[in-house]
Amino acid sequence: MPIVNLDHNVELYYEDVGMGSPVIFIHGVWMSSRFFKKQMPYFRQKYRAISLDLRGHGQSSHVQSGHTVANYARDLNDFMKKLQLKDVTLVGWSMGAFVIWEYLNQFGEDNVKGTVIVDELATDFKWPDFEIGAFDLPALTGMMRDIQTDQTGLLKGFIPLMFKEELPEADLEWMLDETTKLPSSIASAILFDQSIVDCRPYLNSITIPTLLCFGKEEKLIPVAAGEHLRNEIPNAKLEVFEESCHCPFLEEPDRFNSVVDEFVKSLHK
């Protein structure tokens, strides 16, 4: 399987198919590249489609250190350098959006043509001046404790919240298999960091085009989060998926692929 070796014995697993302008898919917390299984066959026809497992996730190294959004962004930068990727489009779902924003904050926009942000807030935490946040301190504390005592039970309750419709048992099974690959120590460490990251201070400095893809069903992230980002990011467009919750790329894959494809094409005109 394709592996990129980073410093400190970190191996990142990735898939790399197709030819053309690179499009990199970045998953959410606890998830993996497998969640983009309905994107890779489509995008490989026109682009170089790449999906990777962040450190600690999926088939990448389960190293016990480095589990912060800022460090995942550094991993992404190293990954892009190792593969000599230029003029990329970054597609970030959930925590993957934070990784993109932190990448742009640390390394700038020179090597990025545009970004696709899928169902994420500017910050997940309910700060005093950000009421639409997903987590307050009791909720975050409770989830971190549940990870340590019943990781599988927590995920069985959490995963269905990502979807508008009831999940078939087979889908829940493979998603549980992917998300339980993380040791509980890693799962709780990155949950805490990604939940308190606050990207609001630098969103208005992003100048490259941004496509915001949000599910209308508000079990986890409200559409108001997308409206807030549209107002904060100068060159942003919001697309709402009526039949989706947190995973429009799985719930409405044909429309998602088409919308993102049109956006990526517009970046190269």
From TrEMBL:
<protein>
    <submittedName>
        <fullName>Alpha/beta hydrolase</fullName>
    </submittedName>
</protein>
<dbReference type="GO" id="GO:0016020">
    <property type="term" value="C:membrane"/>
</dbReference>
<feature type="domain" description="AB hydrolase-1">
    <location>
        <begin position="23"/>
        <end position="257"/>
    </location>
</feature>
<dbReference type="InterPro" id="IPR029058">
    <property type="entry name" value="AB_hydrolase_fold"/>
</dbReference>
<dbReference type="InterPro" id="IPR050266">
    <property type="entry name" value="AB_hydrolase_sf"/>
</dbReference>
<dbReference type="Pfam" id="PF12697">
    <property type="entry name" value="Abhydrolase_6"/>
</dbReference>
<dbReference type="InterPro" id="IPR000073">
    <property type="entry name" value="AB_hydrolase_1"/>
</dbReference>
<keyword id="KW-0378">Hydrolase</keyword>
<dbReference type="GO" id="GO:0016787">
    <property type="term" value="F:hydrolase activity"/>
</dbReference>
